[in-house]
Amino acid sequence: MRILDVLNSLTFRYIVKYVTALSATVFLLLAVLYAYFSYGYFTELRSSILDELEALQLVYNGQGMEGVEQYLADQRNLPTIGRYSYLILDAEGTKVAGDLARTPRYREFSGGWLGFQLALLNWGETVDVDFLARRESLGDGYAALVARNYADAVASGGLVLVTLFRAMIATLLLGIVGGFFSAATTLHRFERLNSELSGIIRGNLSERLSIEGKKGYPRELARAMNLMLDQIGSLMQGVKLVSDNIAHDLRTPLTRIRNQLSQLRQRLDPAGQDEVDRIIEDCDSLLSSFNALLRISALESGSRAPVQARVALSGLLGDLAELYEPVANDKQVSLRLEIAGNVECAGDSDLLFQMCANLLDNAIKYTPAGGCIDVTLAARRDTVEIQVADSGPGIDPADRKNVFRRFYRVESSRGEQPGHGLGLSLVQAIVHYHRGSIALEDNEPGLRVVVNLPETSPRD
Amino acid sequence: MKVLLVEDDRTVADFIVSELARVGHECTHCADGESGLAAARDNNHDVLVVDRMLPRLDGLALLASLRQEAIDTPVLILSALGDVDDRVQGLHCGADDYLVKPFAMAELLARLEILSRRGSQSGSEVPTRLQVADLEMDLLSQEVRRRGEVVNLQPREFRLLEYLMRNAGQVVTRAMLLEHVWGYHFDPQTNVIDVHISRLRQKIDRDFSPPLLATVRGAGDCLGAG
Q1: ipTM over 0.85
Q2: A295/B83 CB distance under 8 A
Q3: Are A357 and B186 in contact (CB < 8 Å)?
Q4: How many whole angstroms separate alpha carbon A196 and alpha carbon A188?
Q5: Do B114 and B170 meet the contact criterion of CB atoms below 8 Å apart?
Q6: Which residues in chain A touch residue B81, judged by CB atoms under 8 angstroms apart?
Q7: Which among B192, B197, B201 is the top mutation candidate for probing chain A, defined by the most A β-carbons within 10 Å of its own β-carbon?
Q8: Which of A132, A162, A398, B52 is the most exposed place for a label (fewest CB within 10 A)?
């Protein structure tokens, strides 16, 4: 499988979506966790500072400044972890006690909280450490500042972040791998279903989807689709029956009318004969569009056996050109051929001849005297390409899709050119029957019809 | 010409019978496959016209059992199913010609005439020369002369003339010419054959009289109508 196929595959696109959704979820979860962790830590930090200030206040109230100094000295001997820093100032702002030398430069937060950085010695290195502090008055002009550093919080916060990030990467990787394995089988099956189904739509409606596996949605889906195909098949059978009935019930009386007219004609004088001849002509054109319509239905119903024979297209186009050359010549339209030798394809020679005849007939019809028509046959990779290009008025791009519709005729040609408006519909039906493609292009000026047919039958 | 018609559609059958009688042919009619097969076994008809879809015994089955019994009366299959598959199937079963309904009576008549003639000619050796009035064709040297003068023809014109000469005096329709001279069964939207006929007429008739190639209105063309 080529890279592009992988990138375009349903599986890949599904996994990309899945992983994106997964990472968004994981990211959101981690962000909430981090916010919750920080909020909890700082709430704890603040309340511990408030507790310490309250303790100082109690000591001061009971034992005065001496008690406070004693309390601070006692604190020094405690283990350093989570230790508080203190500064007691008098009314003039000079230091009375505490381990901080002076009031540091601080930022003020809402609610009377202060934040500052101090350089501390840690394992022989100076490190800038963040502190949260609060100042309260103790009474008698004294004020106490209690600070506590949260370096450990920053450190563990960072650690948490890194851990969370790693966890996220791991989740993603696991997600991709897990997603791939869980989705690939199912999605691959869906893709198979899809390609089988489009094969059936394009080709033989009597084929069915293969039903694999023991259970699961794809299997149920394949079953339902097969049921649907059965129904379509029986409906089409009905349509075919109806069209056969039309053939049998309506064409026969039409023919009878035509034959009775030709009997009647023989008993008439020349003027009457001319009149009847016109009616017979109308009858014939009605019958001819009837026949064309039934042929199109038969081809489109997919009820025909698929093509098996090989058709020598080079010879076929040569015959066609030879058949139509006098007509083109009479109209002073030159017919130019560029036919590669020994080009073959899988097909039905009568149908392909009909297809090319309709195209060439149209081209001759719409090309003015002095114009030219190019018929080209070339072998492409896996396909053969037939082109019929004329120098007539062409078809407006907006009209190009419509001309394949049954009975549709380009407005400007209505009434000017004979025909029942089924020629291109029949061409398209023949092309589809051969599993080929048809395109109308601008020949600048004129119309170029490009037909591509598979070189081998898809069954080979 | 004695024709056996096996056709279940009453009106179509009546019409064919009366039309054949009008131009002087004898026609027996059977309405189902079994009686048709029984009548065909008598083997005294010049040509058989058999509908494809018949009650009791299908047209193709009738044909197959006929051929199995080595009865080789020429058979024309008549059918509303016009697709190539059906025609190939019909010809494969031993039919000599296949005509799709609806058809013009002139078309059926032209084909029956040619079939019945082929039936009576069978066994004679393959000719190397064809002649119609003062028009001669040498099939070996591929030379055509009229009143001794060489007429230059394109290869396709030669084959067209050959088919007309082989069926001289018979009306051949455009569909027959497309089938036998060009080898394709298709429905031309315009009368492409007419131009070829008029070119051929230019070459064999312009400098000579009487004209040999005549167009029969509403039917087809005929070489050496006399």
Answers
A1: no
A2: yes
A3: yes
A4: 12
A5: yes
A6: 244, 247
A7: B192
A8: A398
Rg (CA), chain B: 19
| N-term to C-term CA, chain B | 19
Cα-atom radius of gyration of chain A, to the nearest Å?
46
B59-77 mean pLDDT? 88
Cα–Cα separations (whole angstroms), residue A246 to A291, A301, A375, B79: 10, 15, 37, 13
Contacts of B190 in chain A (CB under 8 A): 327, 361, 365, 418
**A404: nearest Cα among A375, A442, A432, A385:** A432
Subunit contact A256:B15, Cβ cutoff 8 A: yes
Record: contact A252-B188, CB cut-off 8 A: no
CB contact under 8 A, B12 and A265: no
The answer to whether the Cβ–Cβ distance between B80 and A244 falls below 8 Å is yes
Peptide bond into B210 cis (omega under 30): yes
State pLDDT tens for residues A2-36: 555 556 666 677 777 877 888 888 888 878 888 88
Contacts of A304 in chain B (CB under 8 A): 83, 85
- Residue A371 has which token pair? 């114009």
Q: Within an 8 Å CB–CB cutoff, is residue B216 touching chain A? A: no
CA dihedral of A182, A184, A186, A189, whole degrees rounded to 10: -160
Burial of residue B76 (number of CB atoms within 10 Å: 0-12, 13-18, 19+): buried
The rounded percent of chain B whose pLDDT value lies above 70 is 92
Q: Do A262 and B104 touch (CB under 8 A)?
A: yes
Give the span between the Cα atoms of B102 and A259, in whole angstroms. Answer: 10
| Cβ–Cβ contact B190 with A under 8 A | yes
- Touching A: B residues 84-123, CB under 8 Å: 84-85, 100-106
Sort residue A174 into left (φ over 0), alpha (ψ -120 to 50) or beta: alpha
